[in-house]
Structure to design on (257 residues):
């Protein structure tokens, strides 16, 4: 995992943050939310200030988290949001109303799903800032037919509804938490996508193959196993086996490792 792009070439062409043009933000103030970068478009902002930025589905409410100069990779520059304006009191009231609607929508979805005996577990309800669309994130061990559920919800909430089924890793990424290292999960902070992780990576690094030691909160192999894989794979052949004879200039003895 040499870079965040598919080809791993994200490290090429890094540039210093030019004069505070880019700032760190947290979308929707979610503690486990992504903290992408935002192009300020020359607008003066302060730390912890609320702003409105362009998102994937229209405008999004965000909080400025970092104003310090930082080194940005090309992928970070490509994915940077564009700041539209600073948030007003009306925007803050709209955001709070959005959170209240999401709670009611979550309760209604759970109730209607139970009435239709759908074997699904709700993870999160996200409504766009403009209130035009809501996304329902859920998990299920089997493929379910949610068309009747969507019809029931549309009768109560006249809004565009989208259903998204999550896998174990995506569920953990959305829920967030702390890893065995004591830090916030990589997937819920800086990882943009999941890379293949194999048991071979743990073997190459001489790690314990105990599942409880190398598995994350999602029950899958920890993503961090791939961080140093390239270094182990491209390094020179390992040294002599334990307690085998070695010879060097003016020295002869046993290998301690």
């Amino acid at each position: 995992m040499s870079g965040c792009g598919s080809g791993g070439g994200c490290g090429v062409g890094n540039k210093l943050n030019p004069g505070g043009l880019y700032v760190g933000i947290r979308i929707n103030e979610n503690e486990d939310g992504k903290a992408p970068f935002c192009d300020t478009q020359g607008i003066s902002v302060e730390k912890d200030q609320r702003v409105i930025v362009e998102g994937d589905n229209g405008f999004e409410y965000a909080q400025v988290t970092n104003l310090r100069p930082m080194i940005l990779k090309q992928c970070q520059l490509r994915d940077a949001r564009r700041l539209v304006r600073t948030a007003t009191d009306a925007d803050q009231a709209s955001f709070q109303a959005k959170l209240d609607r999401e709670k009611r929508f979550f309760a209604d979805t759970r109730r209607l799903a139970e009435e239709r005996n759908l074997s699904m577990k709700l993870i999160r309800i996200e409504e766009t800032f403009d209130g035009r669309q809501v996304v329902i994130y859920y998990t299920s061990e089997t493929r379910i037919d949610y068309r009747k559920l969507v019809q029931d919800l549309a009768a109560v909430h006249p809004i565009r509804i989208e259903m998204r089924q999550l896998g174990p890793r995506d569920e953990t990424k959305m829920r967030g938490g702390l890893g065995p290292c004591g830090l916030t999960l990589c997937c819920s902070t800086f990882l943009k996508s999941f890379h293949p992780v194999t048991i071979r990576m743990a073997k190459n690094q001489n790690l314990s193959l105990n599942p409880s030691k190398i598995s994350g909160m999602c029950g899958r192999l920890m993503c961090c196993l791939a961080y140093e894989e390239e270094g182990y794979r491209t390094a020179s052949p390992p040294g002599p086996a334990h307690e085998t004879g070695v010879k060097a200039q003016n020295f002869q003895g046993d290998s301690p490792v």
